[in-house]
Amino acid sequence: MSSPTRLFARGTYGEATRIAALLRKETVGGVLLIIGAAVALVWANTPWADFYEGLRDTVVGPASLHLDLSLGTWAADGLLAIFFFVAGLELKREFVAGDLRDPRKAALPVAAAVGGMAVPAIIYTVINLGSEDGLTGWAIPTATDIAFALAVLAVISTHLPAALRTFLLTLAIVDDLLAITIIAIFYTSSLSLGPLALALVPLALFGFCVQKRIRSWWILLPLAAVTWVLVHESGVHATVAGVLLAFTVPVVRSQAAGGPDAGPGLAEHFEHRIRPISAGIAVPVFAFFSAGVTVGGLSGLGASLTDSVAVGIVAGLVVGKAVGITGATWLVSRFTRAQLDTDLRWPDVVGLSLLAGIGFTVSLLIGELAFGAGSLRDEHVKVGVLTGTLIAALLATAVLKPRDRTYRRIAEAEARDDDGDGIPDVYQEQGRAVDQTSPRETVDEASRRRRATEPEG
User: Fold this and answer.
1) Which residue, 289, 313, 283, is CA-closest to 373?
2) pLDDT tens digits for 250-280?
3) What dihedral do alpha carbons 244, 110, 121, 155 form, nearest 10°?
4) CB distance 245 to 199 below 8 Å
5) Would you say the C-alpha torsion 293, 24, 169, 341 has a positive or negative sign?
6) Which of 56, 111, 302, 320 could form a disulfide with 316 if both were Cys (CB 3.0 to 4.6 A apart)?
7) Measured in Å, how far apart are the chain's first and last C-alpha atoms?
8) Is pTM beyond 0.70 here?
9) How far is CA 161 from CA 149, 167, 423, in A?
10) What are phi and psi of 60, to 5 degrees?
């Protein structure tokens, strides 16, 4: 009789090392994001608030191309396209060459992401049924901000096991894809088919170049920029261009370049180069231009938080995410008869679900699209997102922190390497380390492949 499937079981060694390196970058980006948001929030509530608003609303760009946009809009439409490009690369890599190419492993984070978006949307909708225009923002509490969540983990010094961190990252990536789909479908007010059709030309050329393994920036960057401009001109939110461009990039090395075992493919190479720009510049700058809201003292804060939009956002992020993700995980275990990994308990899932209630970047973006940047309702959105994120972070800390001793023990076991071969013993005990592209790669082969770090050229 086969052993039952384990939820949140330890992944493969190649995937674990890659995820660990990626999360370190996201954690740094999360800290910068928090700093950018805090500076904006403080600045917007000082006597110099008008200067902040003037800076955010400063218009730059050529009017002939309809690109005479405010700095705040450039941050939302332009810089976040970089963020979604990186998210698209990571999503494609996970499902083409990562551990999640196995449908059984992909089922849990996909189901959790869907549950974690559906339940908050339902809660928000129920709360705003009597609101005249509040229903427009139904998608605001559906997003998870992975960088912010990892920054919270770093602050509370919780040694979350690799499996839970990987799950959180994957959930957030699927979450981002669903969010960009929602933006493209539900927040496109007017659609111009001409520019959208024309956008397929530079997009196809970009795809042709990357499939031919061309990495020259002076070729790819203009094609990406033209694609972005045409998508922006079409009325579809320009961040969609970032995901479309990412999906054209090959994940696995060509046979001419040595095949899958010769080293990272072009998608991983691009991700390595562009993620620091996304995490270190694009997202923090967007947070700076989007988080500045004039609260107006305790009375103003109270007025904002009593608005049904803010109430729906807070309830969606805090209650909806926890119920949606935990409920979806329970349903997966119930109908597949899978069991939690032996070291984990259901409170760990609840704590992780609360952590996923930290919705910032994409939530603020959807709020601007739903109600218009600078509108009164958009100000309430900001207050709701900031309050919901803070409450979710505090509750996640309260649930996860008492389990830190257990997490520390798991982390120490995952890092132990008694034979000194560079591969932790727990992965040796699995009998083999499954590579990100070859499901039958042995531990020794994985060790050799780790040394092949040169990108395909």
Assistant:
1) 289
2) 988 766 665 566 567 888 889 989 999 999 9
3) -90
4) no
5) negative
6) 320
7) 48
8) yes
9) 15, 10, 17
10) -140, 155
Cα dihedral 442, 446, 448, 454 sign: positive
The token pair at 198 is 């024309």
User: Token pair for residue 253?
Assistant: 């090395």
Q: Which amino acid is at 154?
A: A
Q: Look up residue 186 and give its two tokens.
A: 């539900």
Residue 393: closest CA among 433, 426, 353: 353
Q: Is 215 exposed, middle or buried (0-12, 13-18, 19+ CB in 10 A)?
A: middle
Residue appearing with tokens 């207050």: 383
Candidates 99, 185, 59; CA nearest to 430 is 99
Predicted confidence (pLDDT) at residue 317 exceeds the cutoff of 80: yes
Q: Which of 298, 307, 429, 328 is nearest to 377 (CA)?
A: 307
Say which amino acid occupies 447: S
